[in-house]
Amino acid sequence: MSKTNVRAYGTEAADAPLDAMTIARREPTSRDVEIAIQYCGVCHSDLHTARNDWGGTKYPAVPGHEIVGKVTGLGDDVRDLKVGDTVAVGCMVDSCGECENCKNDLEQYCVRGFTGTYNGKDKHLGGHTFGGYSEKVVEDRHFVLKVPENLDLAGTAPLLCAGITTWSPLRHWKVGKGSKVAVVGLGGLGHMAIKLAAALGAEVSLFSRSPGKKQDAHDLGAHDVIISTNEEEMKGAKSTFDVIIDTVPYEHDLTPYVNTLNVNGTLVLVGYLGNMDEMLNSVPMIMGRRSVAGSVIGGIAETQELLDFCGEHNITSEIEVIDMKEINDAYERMLKSDVRYRFVIDMASFKDN
Ligand code: NAP
Ligand code: ZN
What we know:
Layout: E1 3-10, E2 19-26, E3 32-42, H1 44-50, E4 67-74, E5 86-89, E6 92-94, H2 100-103, E7 115-116, E8 136-140, E9 144-146, H3 153-156, H4 162-172, E10 180-184, H5 188-199, E11 203-208, H6 214-220, E12 224-227, H7 231-236, E13 241-246, H8 255-258, E14 261-269, H9 282-288, E15 291-294, H10 300-313, E16 319-323, H11 327-335, E17 342-346, H12 348-352
Parallel strand pairs: 10-11, 10-13, 11-12, 13-14, 14-15, 16-17
Antiparallel strand pairs: 1-2, 3-4, 3-8, 3-17, 4-5, 5-9, 6-7
This protein binds NADP nicotinamide-adenine-dinucleotide phosphate and zinc ion (ZN).
């Protein structure tokens, strides 16, 4: 298959900084869309992957799965987009398309596994997929989203992961007017969860370790902020919430949060991937018919639904725009929870140097 070289930013090893490199992109097939990337959001998953936190990272690794840009080329079979359209790509670029989950718009739960935008299996060129820290991508039309015209483009990028990852459980657990929702952790995912739950009509609270984020949380739409390290405040929130969206990236004790669920309430883990060891006690689950669940990103139709909802409600992410070469510093700041509330790379900065 013919391919072209494009410039990208990635890493050769878990302990190496990200740097400029050249990667191959396929020439568009009849089903493909070629996109010049304008902005790419920086997700904590990018950092986990670059540093092999989850194991299984293939190098060189080029992260980035919050991609927005302009169509520059189209395969012959793609008739509902045109060159110049503003489009987006999120966390998935392929799935089997045949299993029940794919047929039901749940590509993220494809029984054969979805293909990640980065670190997935590249069935076209062999090897693995490379993400959005690059000049352009070529992706199957099915996995390309349309961006509402009124939205700020840089602020739209994080909707493609932070947005959909919190939107999907809010929708699945039927959050709306009258729901009491709490969000654990005010970062990229957490701030989108607050905005989206509030826009759906829920009363939203934040659990945070960071008292300094209180005012921001209120400005984003939270009614209440509970400092999770303060035992009295945690006790005061007992048996309150219908749904909790837990975005914390690292292992942590879940039981104090489960205690704040109302009867029949559900805590949805979206942040931490891994063993929980002694982090969950069954007693508060049994005594309150409470559930602990998990959720990964969202389907393609659901992602389009989110983008359209954000268009209607004029919702975008709170961002700090950075140059491509600032990415290593951005990772260090993300580890210190020092970002308000998503870094987004301006790809024009990459072309200039
Ligand atoms: P982020 O911007 O770094 O935000 C995480 C927040 O969690 C921090 O701002 C902090 O909030 C809190 N936190 C961080 N470390 C903590 C610790 N050790 N203990 C307690 N709280 C801590 O990260 P993100 O981009 O939102 O991503 C969050 C997680 O979701 C990552 O692990 C990422 O890989 C995962 N993720 C999952 C999916 C999915 O499909 N399920 C999709 C995307 C990302 P406070 O300062 O308010 O406490
Ligand atoms: Zn992500």
